[in-house]
Design brief:
6-stranded antiparallel β-barrel; 1 helix; 6 strands; 47% strand; globular
């Protein structure tokens, strides 16, 4: 399923809820806060053979618990359930941020 996700999958979904479902505890509601096109950071044009534009998504959740980086099952009302490797970025004024990068 992830191989079909593109930046367009997440663009326009900022503010929507994504539930992170750790195996050992109840789901944690997070909000998608940013979707970033990473292709300008590559410093070169995309190869025509590239399957998708590289991008990242950042979610914000509660301050606790802080989840370690690993693969989690995420759930979204329209996108369904999927597994995603997320990395904690740390707190901001509103909660803990987590990032996933798609290349």
């Amino acid at each position: 399923m992830l191989e079909k996700f593109t930046i367009a999958t997440f663009a326009g979904r900022e503010g929507e809820t994504f539930r992170i479902c750790p195996e050992e505890q109840p789901p944690i509601n997070t909000v998608l806060v940013t979707v970033t096109d990473l292709s300008p950071r590559l410093g070169r044009p995309l190869d025509p053979g590239d399957l998708r534009t590289p991008f990242s998504v950042v979610f914000r959740g509660p301050m606790t618990p802080m989840l370690p980086q690993r693969i989690y099952r995420l759930a979204h009302d329209e996108l369904g359930e999927f597994e995603l490797f997320i990395v904690p970025l740390g707190p901001d004024r509103e909660g803990l941020r987590y990032e996933a990068v798609f290349t």
